[in-house]
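for the writeup, i need someone to sanity check this before i put it in the appendix. the sequnce is what the collaborator sent (i think, or maybe the updated version? ugh). structure was predicted straight from it, no edits. if anything looks off just tell me and ill rerun, i have time this weekend
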Amino acid sequence: MTLLSNLLHKRTQPLQLFKLLQTQHPNPLSFLQIRTATKRAGGSTKNNRSSAGRRLGVKIFGGQYVNQGEIIIRQRGQRFHPGENVCISKDHSLHAQRSGYVKFYEDPRGDSIGYRALSLRHQAQRKFVGVVQDRDQTLPRDLKSEGRARHFGLVDLNSHFKQIELDSANNFKISKSDLILKQTV
């Protein structure tokens, strides 16, 4: 600093100034400093980030109780297909249409509604999700022998009518229509 102040206060010729600098410093250009950028160039900090997970998967497992309207499975695409008492929403989530117990099954016969045409093409068995009223019921139902599951006021009418027919066979014959008329009156 003192050298620089001496040079500025003295009135010297440029050649004398150069000689004076050369005696003090071997390289006179080292006195001249040029600042350059010190910040490193980096990429964008927003790159290589993914979105948060969508929380997909099975929400209620087989054998667990589900209320009407609850989500059973959230999925992308149809990995699981709706079975008995289950509906599918526009984002392929499966919802319970009625309260009951969740059952996972594969339909070996392809007799489920909307599945027969696909089973004729020898595709792999689809995984279905169904909801049944009783925990001990199994899916798929044998539609020829058992018929469709019919419920009225959360009562399985098929099993109810079978029980009535067994009771009435012992006592006297009563038709289903007579029974319904008696219950409504």
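The longest strand covers residues 100-106. The first helix runs from residue 2 to 9.
thx in advance!!
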